[in-house]
Amino acid sequence: MRAAVAAACTLVIGFAVEDMRRRAVSTKASGRLEAGEEAQRVRRLERMKAALRRAQERLSALSEALPFGMWELDGAGSQIVHASDSYCQLFGMNLEEIAAHGWRERVPPDDAERFLSAWNARGDDDIFEGEYRVHAVDGKTYWILSRGMRLTAADGTTSWAGFSLDITQRKRSEQRISLLSDLGRVLSLSLEPQPILERVAELLVPRVADWCAIDLAGRDQGIERAVLVHRDRERMRAARCLTNSAQLAALLGTASARVIASGEPILVRSFPREVHQSAMLSPEQLATAQAFRADSVIVVPLIARDQTLGSLTVAVDDPWQRYESDDVDFMGIVGRRVALAFDNALLYERERRVADMFQRASLPASLPAIPGIAIHAHYVPGANEAQVGGDWYDAFQLADGRIGISIGDVAGKGLHAASIMSTVRLFIRATALEGLAPSLVLARANALLLNDKPTMVTALFGTLDPEELTFTCAVAGHPLPVVVDAAGEATTGVPVAPPLGITIDTSFPEQTFMLPLGSLMALYTDGLVESAEDARYGEADLVKAVRGARSAHDANPAEGIAKLLLGDAPPSDDVAVLTVQAAAKPLLELDLTLPAQPVSSRLFRQALRRFYLAAGVTTDAIPMLQVAMGEAITNSIQHAYGVQGGVVRVQGRVESGRLIVEIADTGRWRGPHDDGGGYGLQIVRSIVNDVTINTDERGTIIRMVHPIGRFIT
Asked: The domain spanning residue 418 has which CATH number?
C-alpha cells in the first residue's frame, strides 16, 4: 500500500511540474510578466524539482527496504515496466530478462501456474495478492507474497504498482506447526512400534523430504533399517528389495551409523554422485540407488530416556532446495517426539506381552469332562490399541459332583488388571470349594475387593448340576447367560446386582437356568458385543451366533460364537466366552476315562447315575448299583497301579434289557494281602448278578451285567 501511495505521489508531482513549466513558457512568450516574477517562478520550479528528486529517492529507498522491493506493470498487467534492484538480484536477472518471462525459470511450475491463474482471474478487482516460491541464486528457497494495486492517472491511463515481501519464515512456521500437529495425531493412532515409524515416514514424505529412512540400533551394535519411504512408490518398492544389501546400506547407512554412535545430528548439504558409481551393484540396483541420491540430507538421532534408539533420515533431491541449520533444529524436535512415542510403544508392547502371558497362564489349563455335557471356552486378547489382562473364565469340579463356573471382567487393563483377575478368579474358586452358594461366593469376593483390592469387577458365578441339567448363578453387573434350546428359543436372566467392589451392602440374588437336552448356554464378557453401536443389536447378534453355533455342531462352540461376531479382526477389548452344551439325547451310552485317583471315583459315580436314569433304572435301585460300581472302580484305582499312576476307563451300554458296565485299567493288580480288606469284589458280586474279571498283559477288565427288567423305558 505504501508503494502504491508513493507511486501516486510521484505521478502527481510530475504532472504539477510539467504544468508550471508550460505556464512559464507561455507567460514569457506573451511578455506580460515582469522579470522579477519570472525569476520567482523559476525558483519555485527548482524547489519543486528538488522535492521531486527527494520523493524519488525516498521511493527508491522504500522500495529497496522491502524484501524484495517494488514492481510496476503496464495497464494490461502483462508487461513489467519496473522492478526493484533487490527483486532482480533475487532472480539473478536484469529487468529485461524478467520481463521476458525469465522469472519462471526460478519458480516451481506448480507455483507459477497457480499464481498466473489467480492473476488472470482478478477481473475488475483493483487489488491483487498471491504467493509463490522462488529458487534464488543464493541457493535458498524463498516464499514471496506479491500484493499490487491498480492505479488510474488523471488522463485515464492505468497501471499496476505493488511490492514483494519475503514471507519465508512465516510459511515455514505455519508448515512446521501444521506438521507437528499432524505428527501428534499420527503418534496417537497406534501403540504398535512398527506402524508408528511407518506413519511418521509417510507423514514426512513429501511434506519435508523426497525420501525418508528410519534405522534402529540392533543387538551387537548392528543397525537395522526399519522404514524406507520414497515419494515415488515404484522406487520405494524397488529399494525395499535392496534394504538388506550391504552396498545400499553403505550408501544410505553411513551417516546413520555415525549419528547413532555419537547421538549428534548431521547436516549433509550434498552427497557425491561417485559414491553411487563405486557401489558394487547390478544395473537395476544401480538405477534404484541413483534414485536415492540426495542433494541435501538431515540425520537426527532418536533419543528417549537417555537411550539412542536409532536415527531418522530425511533427504531432498532438488538441487534448488537445501536444508539449513534451523531445519536441523526442527527435525531434532520431530526426532525426540518420534523416539519417545516409539519407546513408549516398546514399553507397552513388553507389558502387553507379559500381561498376555500372565493372562493365559492364569486361565484354567483344562475344563471338566462330563459325559453328556460339553464345556468349552475361548479367549481372544484385545486389538493392538487395547491392553489385555482383565477377562477370565473358569470351570471346576465341586465336591458334591456339580460344576462351578465363573466368568468376569476386571476394570482396567494391563499387568495390574491381569494380576487382580488371577486373584479374583482363584478366590472365587477357593470359596466355591467350601460348598457356599453362588450368592455367598460373590459376596465374599466383593468384600475382598473392597478391603484389599479397590477395583470394580463384573462377575458371574454359578453351579451346574449335570443330573438335573440346571445352572444356578449369581450375577454382579455382568452380561447374563444366553440359553438356546433345541427348538432355537432363547432365554436369558435379569440383571439385579451391581459389579463387585462398589458397595459393601450388596446382595447377589441367584437365578436358575434350565438346560434341556440339545440346548447350548453361552457366558461371555462384554468385549464380545460392545462393538455394536446399539447394545440391543449386539445382544440380538449374540443370540443369532449362539443359535448358529448350536446348529453347526462345532468342535468348540465358544470359538465359533467368537468368530461369528468378531470375524477375523481382533476385538477392541478382551473377549472370554464359555459354553455349556447338553447332549441332544439321553446318556444311553457311557465312555469315560479319568486318572486313577480317588477323586475320580466321584466323577465316575456321577456319570453312572445319569446313565442309570437314562436307561430306566428307578431312583430306588440306583444306590445299590452305585455301591457295586464304586467298589469295582476303587479296586482298579487302588490295585492296578503303583506310584507311576495310570487311567481307568468306564464304559456302559444297554443290550437286550441288560445293563452292561465294563471297568478297565492297563496296570497289573497286586496280589492279595492281609490288611483287613479284600471284600470289595464280594460286595460287587452280592449286588450284581453277573461279574467277570479278565486279566492279561494289557490290563484288567471287570465286566458287570445286571438285568433292568421292568425298569426299561
From this structure: 3.60.40.10
